[in-house]
Amino acid sequence: MCPAGYHHPGWCLTVSEAQPAKRSRAAAETRSDRLIASVAGVVGAIAADSLVVEVGGLGYRVFAAPAILARAQTGEQIRLHTFHLVREDQQALYGFASPEELGFFTLLLTVTGVGPKVALAIVGSRPVADLQLAILQRDQAVLVAIPGIGKKLAERVIFELREKVAAAGTAAAAAGEGEAGGETEVVAALQALGYSAAEARSAARAAMAGVPVSSSLEDRVKAALRTLLKD
Rounded distance, CA 145 to CA 149, Å? Predict the structure, then answer.
């Protein structure tokens, strides 16, 4: 007899062998091997929380922040960096204007209790540099000001992401330490946070001119993020 499985003359197939293992929802949401990394085409329609991008005869519904929806015009070209959400019962696309926004959205999904809708609301609330700075400075007020984000969730976002945001910059800075000293470290840290080389160099140069030579890497990165907010 087959133990709790399926019987066939000559062999047995157990339930665990017959059914593929299920991935957790969190694992499914945070996978990096997305099929659709970006969408470029004509805006076919605009809804309250999404827009349809027509590409090669197909229309892709992309959920996006209010700022993107406000700028979009039906019939005009648009290009969005996308997060392809894959669940057992759902697939969805979330679109962003820059790789920095997409990267921060993906990072937010690693926080306990933060799903795509909440993550999109956070990313769409203000510049990514502002959000990163708020997390580094433990500034709950910035997050609580976002509709739908309460004090407990703001605390959890800061608690779970502060070390990740700081560590990304510190690890890259250690690898990039060299001739230019502190400025090179800041450039490497900003690039690890998702900024382009040009943005990182410009912000690092401005930050280094306004902080004491003895300042810590974290203070220099914070100063650079403030510079990015002014641009």
Answer: 7
Provide the 8-state DSSP code for 218: H
Domain regions of the chain by residue span: 24-97, 98-231
| 37 vs 167, residue with greater confidence | 37
CATH of 24-97, picked from 3.40.50.150, 2.40.50.140, 2.60.40.10, 2.30.110.10, is: 2.40.50.140
Mean pLDDT across 185-195: 79
Provide the β-strand partners of residue 71.
none
Local confidence band at 151 (pLDDT 50, 70, 90 cut-offs) = very high
Q: What is the pTM of this model?
A: 0.67
CA distances from 13 to 17, 22, 55, 158, 169 (A): 6, 18, 45, 47, 50
